[in-house]
Amino acid sequence: MTIWSAVPAVVALSPVSAFADWGVGKSNSKFPQPDLFAPVSTPAHDIETLAWFAITICAGIALIVGGILLYGIIAYRVRRGDDGSEPPQVYGSNPIEFAWTVIPLLIVFVLILTTARTIYSIQGRPRPPGALTVHIIGHQWWWEVRYPSLNITTANEIHVPLSEPSNDNPTFLDLESADVAHSFWVPQLAGKTDVIPNRKNTMWIDPHKAGTYLGQCAEFCGTEHALMLLRVVVEPPAQWQQWVASQQKPAVHEPSAAHGRRVFESTACVNCHTVQGTVASGRFGPDLTHIMSRETIAAGAAVNTPEHLKIWIRDPDLIKPGALMPAMNLNGHDLDDVAGYLASLR
Ligand code: CUA
Fold first, then answer.
1. Nearest alpha carbon to residue 234 among 158, 340, 150, 299
2. Which atom of ligand 1 approaches the CA of 221 most closely?
3. Which fold has domain 132-234?
4. pLDDT single digits (tens) 3-16
């Protein structure tokens, strides 16, 4: 038995495979993995075209250099009967030096110019009057999402209307940070844009295919950087309008959840979270007014189910080790009722 044949067994037994994926893992086809080479928005298309151009040039260089190297190794290998003397040496050949200076220089310039053109064509797009603007604020470790013109606040899941060729409908994203540097990246929609404290960066997307697109904070920002996920839900305009209308409704107050609401309002929850129309008006954590309209909780770390909500309130570290939300230490009955209250906030 070689050492390598033991590797699969070690991997299978390692504690990593024992981690629960809270319903959002690769096995869940509802949550497609992001794909750099399947763009659905103009900036991502432009970047893909540029990427293939650069890959083609680099692959050509690799083939030529590797091919010459391989040829040299095979054709000039040591042969029986070699007398061991050195072959003729070439010193100071002007044509050769000129070629290996100018050709790489030209290649680099072509790459610089095509990259600059792509950057300018993406960044130079003017914001048409009336374009939808979404204000996104990076926090450790979640995304605050505000639609200033629509008076909507949500988190981690951004709903935007479809942009069809016949009806160009771009969405502009204004990015800011509440704490450290983050980076907003949804590969199928656009490139990465840094999210920096005390600075507003802007990007735009014009997705032309409905669906849910996954993204990720792309700048190391602390313990849970890896679980600072993004989902962009692209919907046909009529469906998007329905989402807007449902988000603009006041919070549901179900009489059956009244006790849970009282417990929620009497704990520290209200210092960090907002539920419209209640005493809860904190902004340190996500707005919970319509929490059940979101597919996931904890910035994409777990599928949003009443069971996961309860685990999250009881012990956030179980789902997201290092999360800044404290465990609330509620007794079993209060925990059930607070989770029940949250589950009523559709
Ligand atoms: Cu936010 Cu990494």
1. 158
2. 2
3. Immunoglobulin-like (2.60.40)
4. 555 444 444 444 44
User: 73 is written with which tokens?
Assistant: 């190794």
Give span(s): CATH 2.60.40.420, the chain: 132-234, 250-343
Task: Label residue 29 by pLDDT band (50, 70, 90).
Answer: low
pLDDT in tens, 40-60: 999 999 999 999 999 999 999
**What is the Å distance from ligand 1's center to 137 Cα?**
11
What does CATH list as the number for 250-343? Answer: 2.60.40.420
Q: Cα of 139 to ligand 1 centre, how many Å?
A: 8
Which protein residues touch ligand 1 with a CB less than 6 Å away? Answer: 138, 141, 182, 217, 219-221, 225, 228
Predicted TM-score (pTM) of this structure: 0.86
Report the b/e string of 207-240 with b at 16+ CB within 10 A: bbeeeebbbbbbbebeebbebbbbbbbbbeeeeb
